[in-house]
Design a protein that fits this description.
Layout (H helix, E strand, L loop, with lengths): L4 H22 L8 H26 L1 H32 L3 H32 L3 H18 L12 H9 L12 E4 L2 E4 L1 H24 L6 H13 L1 H8 L9 H17 L8 H33 L1
Helix pairs in contact: 2-3, 2-8, 2-9, 3-7, 3-8, 3-9, 3-11, 4-7, 4-8, 5-10, 10-11
Length: about 325
Amino acid sequence: MEIPLLFWIVFNIFVFSMLALDLGVLNRKPHTPSFREAGLWSAAWITLALLFNLGVYIWLGPQFGIEFLTGYLIEYSLSVDNIFVFVLIFTSFGVPSQYQHRVLFWGVLGALVMRGILIFAGAALIERFQWVLYIFGAFLVFAGIRMFRSESEEAIDLENNRILKFVRRFVPVTKDYHEQRFFVLEQGKRVATPLFMVLILVEFTDVLFALDSIPAIFAVTREPFIVYTSNVFAIMGLRSLYFLLAGIVQKFVYLRYGLAFILTFVGFKILTESFLHISNVVSLLVIATALAVSIIASLTIGQKHAGAKETDD
Protein backbone atom coordinates (compact mmCIF):
# COMPACT_ATOMS: atom_id res chain seq x y z
CA MET A 1 0.00 0.00 0.00
CA GLU A 2 1.41 3.37 -1.04
CA ILE A 3 1.09 6.09 1.60
CA PRO A 4 -0.46 9.28 0.12
CA LEU A 5 1.89 12.25 -0.12
CA LEU A 6 -0.63 14.31 1.87
CA PHE A 7 0.07 12.13 4.95
CA TRP A 8 3.78 12.97 4.76
CA ILE A 9 3.12 16.69 4.33
CA VAL A 10 0.61 16.96 7.18
CA PHE A 11 2.80 14.96 9.55
CA ASN A 12 5.91 17.06 8.91
CA ILE A 13 3.94 20.30 9.26
CA PHE A 14 2.76 19.03 12.65
CA VAL A 15 6.33 18.15 13.74
CA PHE A 16 7.87 21.48 12.78
CA SER A 17 4.93 23.37 14.28
CA MET A 18 5.55 21.61 17.59
CA LEU A 19 9.26 22.43 17.40
CA ALA A 20 8.49 26.10 16.67
CA LEU A 21 6.03 26.19 19.58
CA ASP A 22 8.63 24.60 21.84
CA LEU A 23 11.55 26.93 21.10
CA GLY A 24 9.70 30.10 20.15
CA VAL A 25 6.97 30.18 22.81
CA LEU A 26 7.26 27.65 25.63
CA ASN A 27 11.03 27.73 26.15
CA ARG A 28 12.19 31.14 24.99
CA LYS A 29 14.00 31.65 28.30
CA PRO A 30 16.47 29.02 29.52
CA HIS A 31 15.19 27.09 32.53
CA THR A 32 15.35 23.68 34.12
CA PRO A 33 12.07 21.80 33.54
CA SER A 34 10.59 20.61 36.81
CA PHE A 35 9.76 16.95 37.40
CA ARG A 36 6.06 17.80 37.05
CA GLU A 37 6.60 19.70 33.79
CA ALA A 38 8.71 16.88 32.34
CA GLY A 39 6.10 14.34 33.42
CA LEU A 40 3.26 16.29 31.79
CA TRP A 41 5.20 16.67 28.53
CA SER A 42 6.16 12.99 28.52
CA ALA A 43 2.51 12.05 29.02
CA ALA A 44 1.52 14.50 26.27
CA TRP A 45 3.92 13.00 23.73
CA ILE A 46 2.89 9.44 24.58
CA THR A 47 -0.77 10.46 24.22
CA LEU A 48 -0.08 12.12 20.85
CA ALA A 49 1.75 8.99 19.67
CA LEU A 50 -1.16 6.77 20.70
CA LEU A 51 -3.70 9.08 19.03
CA PHE A 52 -1.59 9.00 15.87
CA ASN A 53 -1.47 5.21 16.22
CA LEU A 54 -5.29 5.18 16.35
CA GLY A 55 -5.39 7.31 13.18
CA VAL A 56 -3.01 4.91 11.44
CA TYR A 57 -5.20 1.99 12.52
CA ILE A 58 -8.35 3.66 11.15
CA TRP A 59 -6.99 5.18 7.94
CA LEU A 60 -4.25 2.71 6.93
CA GLY A 61 -5.55 -0.49 8.48
CA PRO A 62 -4.89 -2.81 11.45
CA GLN A 63 -1.60 -4.15 10.07
CA PHE A 64 0.03 -0.72 9.90
CA GLY A 65 -1.52 0.11 13.28
CA ILE A 66 0.20 -2.85 14.96
CA GLU A 67 3.44 -2.12 13.10
CA PHE A 68 3.49 1.49 14.30
CA LEU A 69 2.79 0.56 17.91
CA THR A 70 5.49 -2.14 17.89
CA GLY A 71 8.00 0.17 16.20
CA TYR A 72 7.21 3.04 18.57
CA LEU A 73 7.69 0.79 21.59
CA ILE A 74 11.06 -0.38 20.25
CA GLU A 75 12.25 3.14 19.49
CA TYR A 76 10.97 4.66 22.74
CA SER A 77 12.49 1.93 24.91
CA LEU A 78 15.84 2.14 23.12
CA SER A 79 15.81 5.92 23.55
CA VAL A 80 16.11 5.38 27.30
CA ASP A 81 19.64 4.12 26.64
CA ASN A 82 20.39 7.53 25.11
CA ILE A 83 19.53 9.10 28.46
CA PHE A 84 22.30 7.16 30.23
CA VAL A 85 24.83 8.66 27.79
CA PHE A 86 23.32 12.16 27.87
CA VAL A 87 23.67 12.18 31.66
CA LEU A 88 27.36 11.25 31.27
CA ILE A 89 27.95 13.95 28.66
CA PHE A 90 26.27 16.73 30.65
CA THR A 91 27.99 15.62 33.85
CA SER A 92 31.45 15.37 32.23
CA PHE A 93 31.11 18.86 30.75
CA GLY A 94 29.45 20.33 33.83
CA VAL A 95 26.61 21.74 31.73
CA PRO A 96 24.30 23.97 33.83
CA SER A 97 20.86 22.34 33.98
CA GLN A 98 19.08 25.40 32.56
CA TYR A 99 21.05 25.09 29.29
CA GLN A 100 20.56 21.35 28.76
CA HIS A 101 17.14 21.81 27.18
CA ARG A 102 18.60 23.96 24.39
CA VAL A 103 21.23 21.31 23.58
CA LEU A 104 18.58 18.60 23.48
CA PHE A 105 16.30 20.75 21.29
CA TRP A 106 18.93 21.22 18.59
CA GLY A 107 20.05 17.65 19.11
CA VAL A 108 16.52 16.48 18.34
CA LEU A 109 16.33 18.69 15.25
CA GLY A 110 19.60 17.26 13.95
CA ALA A 111 18.46 13.73 14.82
CA LEU A 112 15.26 14.16 12.78
CA VAL A 113 17.27 15.09 9.70
CA MET A 114 19.92 12.37 10.11
CA ARG A 115 17.42 9.63 10.94
CA GLY A 116 15.27 10.63 7.98
CA ILE A 117 18.29 10.18 5.71
CA LEU A 118 19.20 6.83 7.29
CA ILE A 119 15.61 5.54 7.10
CA PHE A 120 15.17 6.34 3.40
CA ALA A 121 18.62 4.99 2.59
CA GLY A 122 17.83 1.78 4.49
CA ALA A 123 14.43 1.41 2.81
CA ALA A 124 15.97 1.92 -0.64
CA LEU A 125 18.68 -0.67 0.08
CA ILE A 126 16.14 -3.23 1.29
CA GLU A 127 13.87 -2.67 -1.72
CA ARG A 128 16.78 -3.23 -4.10
CA PHE A 129 18.81 -5.78 -2.16
CA GLN A 130 16.68 -8.00 0.09
CA TRP A 131 19.78 -9.70 1.51
CA VAL A 132 20.67 -6.45 3.30
CA LEU A 133 18.04 -7.45 5.87
CA TYR A 134 20.21 -10.38 6.95
CA ILE A 135 23.09 -7.98 7.55
CA PHE A 136 20.74 -5.88 9.69
CA GLY A 137 19.65 -8.98 11.59
CA ALA A 138 23.21 -10.17 12.25
CA PHE A 139 24.21 -6.67 13.35
CA LEU A 140 21.29 -6.47 15.80
CA VAL A 141 22.14 -9.83 17.34
CA PHE A 142 25.75 -8.67 17.72
CA ALA A 143 24.61 -5.33 19.20
CA GLY A 144 22.33 -7.11 21.65
CA ILE A 145 25.07 -9.45 22.84
CA ARG A 146 27.49 -6.54 23.12
CA MET A 147 24.98 -4.54 25.20
CA PHE A 148 24.28 -7.56 27.42
CA ARG A 149 27.99 -8.05 28.13
CA SER A 150 28.86 -4.36 28.51
CA GLU A 151 29.43 -2.91 31.94
CA SER A 152 28.02 0.35 33.29
CA GLU A 153 29.06 3.54 31.53
CA GLU A 154 32.16 5.39 32.68
CA ALA A 155 32.88 9.09 32.64
CA ILE A 156 33.76 10.56 29.25
CA ASP A 157 37.44 11.36 28.74
CA LEU A 158 37.25 14.92 27.45
CA GLU A 159 40.96 15.19 26.73
CA ASN A 160 41.32 12.03 24.63
CA ASN A 161 37.91 11.82 22.97
CA ARG A 162 38.53 11.44 19.23
CA ILE A 163 35.42 13.32 18.15
CA LEU A 164 36.29 16.33 20.29
CA LYS A 165 39.93 16.24 19.15
CA PHE A 166 38.81 16.25 15.50
CA VAL A 167 36.45 19.20 16.00
CA ARG A 168 39.08 21.19 17.93
CA ARG A 169 41.45 20.89 14.95
CA PHE A 170 39.11 23.11 12.91
CA VAL A 171 37.09 25.04 15.49
CA PRO A 172 38.64 27.11 18.31
CA VAL A 173 36.81 26.57 21.60
CA THR A 174 36.51 28.80 24.66
CA LYS A 175 37.04 27.45 28.17
CA ASP A 176 33.95 29.07 29.70
CA TYR A 177 30.23 28.89 29.01
CA HIS A 178 28.53 32.00 27.66
CA GLU A 179 24.99 31.36 28.83
CA GLN A 180 23.21 29.22 26.20
CA ARG A 181 25.26 30.36 23.21
CA PHE A 182 27.04 27.92 20.94
CA PHE A 183 29.33 30.58 19.42
CA VAL A 184 30.70 33.93 20.65
CA LEU A 185 33.06 36.63 19.40
CA GLU A 186 36.46 36.84 21.09
CA GLN A 187 39.00 39.39 19.87
CA GLY A 188 37.05 39.75 16.64
CA LYS A 189 36.97 36.00 15.94
CA ARG A 190 33.99 33.67 16.17
CA VAL A 191 34.77 30.79 18.48
CA ALA A 192 32.72 27.86 19.80
CA THR A 193 31.72 27.46 23.44
CA PRO A 194 31.83 24.17 25.38
CA LEU A 195 28.05 23.96 24.81
CA PHE A 196 28.71 23.47 21.09
CA MET A 197 31.06 20.57 21.87
CA VAL A 198 28.31 19.03 23.99
CA LEU A 199 25.93 19.34 21.04
CA ILE A 200 28.43 17.61 18.75
CA LEU A 201 28.68 14.66 21.15
CA VAL A 202 24.89 14.47 21.54
CA GLU A 203 24.43 14.39 17.75
CA PHE A 204 27.17 11.77 17.31
CA THR A 205 25.64 9.66 20.08
CA ASP A 206 22.26 9.71 18.36
CA VAL A 207 23.82 8.53 15.09
CA LEU A 208 25.37 5.58 16.93
CA PHE A 209 22.05 4.69 18.56
CA ALA A 210 20.24 5.07 15.23
CA LEU A 211 22.47 2.35 13.79
CA ASP A 212 20.84 0.00 16.30
CA SER A 213 17.29 1.30 16.44
CA ILE A 214 16.55 1.83 12.74
CA PRO A 215 17.51 -1.72 11.65
CA ALA A 216 15.46 -2.96 14.63
CA ILE A 217 12.25 -1.36 13.39
CA PHE A 218 12.76 -2.83 9.91
CA ALA A 219 12.18 -6.16 11.64
CA VAL A 220 8.50 -5.25 12.10
CA THR A 221 7.75 -3.09 9.04
CA ARG A 222 9.18 -2.22 5.62
CA GLU A 223 6.97 0.84 5.20
CA PRO A 224 9.13 4.04 5.37
CA PHE A 225 6.20 6.14 6.66
CA ILE A 226 5.73 3.87 9.69
CA VAL A 227 9.48 3.68 10.32
CA TYR A 228 9.83 7.46 10.08
CA THR A 229 6.80 8.45 12.17
CA SER A 230 7.55 6.00 14.99
CA ASN A 231 11.12 7.30 15.11
CA VAL A 232 9.97 10.91 15.15
CA PHE A 233 7.51 10.40 18.01
CA ALA A 234 10.16 8.60 20.06
CA ILE A 235 12.73 11.35 19.44
CA MET A 236 10.29 14.19 20.10
CA GLY A 237 9.47 12.71 23.48
CA LEU A 238 13.12 12.14 24.35
CA ARG A 239 13.80 15.59 25.86
CA SER A 240 10.95 15.48 28.37
CA LEU A 241 11.81 11.85 29.14
CA TYR A 242 15.40 12.94 29.87
CA PHE A 243 14.34 15.55 32.44
CA LEU A 244 11.88 13.05 33.92
CA LEU A 245 14.41 10.23 34.34
CA ALA A 246 17.84 11.92 34.50
CA GLY A 247 17.92 11.90 38.28
CA ILE A 248 16.73 8.30 38.68
CA VAL A 249 17.94 6.58 35.50
CA GLN A 250 20.76 4.87 37.41
CA LYS A 251 18.12 2.95 39.38
CA PHE A 252 17.11 1.01 36.25
CA VAL A 253 20.02 -1.40 36.67
CA TYR A 254 18.42 -4.23 34.70
CA LEU A 255 16.96 -2.13 31.89
CA ARG A 256 20.07 -2.61 29.76
CA TYR A 257 19.49 -6.37 29.81
CA GLY A 258 15.91 -5.87 28.65
CA LEU A 259 17.07 -3.65 25.79
CA ALA A 260 19.77 -6.17 24.89
CA PHE A 261 17.13 -8.91 24.73
CA ILE A 262 14.92 -6.74 22.49
CA LEU A 263 17.77 -6.09 20.03
CA THR A 264 18.69 -9.77 19.97
CA PHE A 265 15.06 -10.82 19.52
CA VAL A 266 14.37 -8.51 16.56
CA GLY A 267 17.69 -9.57 14.99
CA PHE A 268 16.67 -13.22 15.38
CA LYS A 269 13.26 -12.37 13.86
CA ILE A 270 14.93 -10.97 10.75
CA LEU A 271 17.40 -13.84 10.37
CA THR A 272 14.70 -16.55 10.68
CA GLU A 273 11.95 -14.78 8.75
CA SER A 274 12.23 -17.05 5.69
CA PHE A 275 11.36 -20.23 7.63
CA LEU A 276 9.97 -19.06 11.01
CA HIS A 277 7.25 -16.42 10.88
CA ILE A 278 6.83 -14.41 14.08
CA SER A 279 3.75 -12.21 13.81
CA ASN A 280 3.90 -8.55 14.77
CA VAL A 281 1.34 -9.15 17.51
CA VAL A 282 3.65 -11.75 19.09
CA SER A 283 6.61 -9.39 18.60
CA LEU A 284 4.71 -6.60 20.35
CA LEU A 285 3.91 -8.85 23.32
CA VAL A 286 7.50 -10.13 23.60
CA ILE A 287 9.00 -6.62 23.45
CA ALA A 288 6.48 -5.16 25.93
CA THR A 289 7.05 -8.09 28.32
CA ALA A 290 10.86 -7.77 28.16
CA LEU A 291 10.65 -4.06 28.84
CA ALA A 292 8.19 -4.48 31.72
CA VAL A 293 10.18 -7.30 33.36
CA SER A 294 13.46 -5.35 33.21
CA ILE A 295 11.85 -2.23 34.73
CA ILE A 296 10.05 -4.16 37.48
CA ALA A 297 13.22 -6.12 38.29
CA SER A 298 15.19 -2.87 38.50
CA LEU A 299 12.70 -1.27 40.88
CA THR A 300 12.39 -4.35 43.11
CA ILE A 301 15.38 -6.72 43.03
CA GLY A 302 17.83 -4.01 41.96
CA GLN A 303 16.79 -1.64 44.74
CA LYS A 304 17.01 -4.42 47.34
CA HIS A 305 20.57 -5.19 46.26
CA ALA A 306 21.46 -1.50 46.30
CA GLY A 307 20.00 -1.14 49.81
CA ALA A 308 21.88 -4.22 51.05
CA LYS A 309 25.13 -2.87 49.59
CA GLU A 310 24.65 0.49 51.34
CA THR A 311 23.99 -1.35 54.63
CA ASP A 312 27.19 -3.39 54.24
CA ASP A 313 29.17 -0.25 53.54
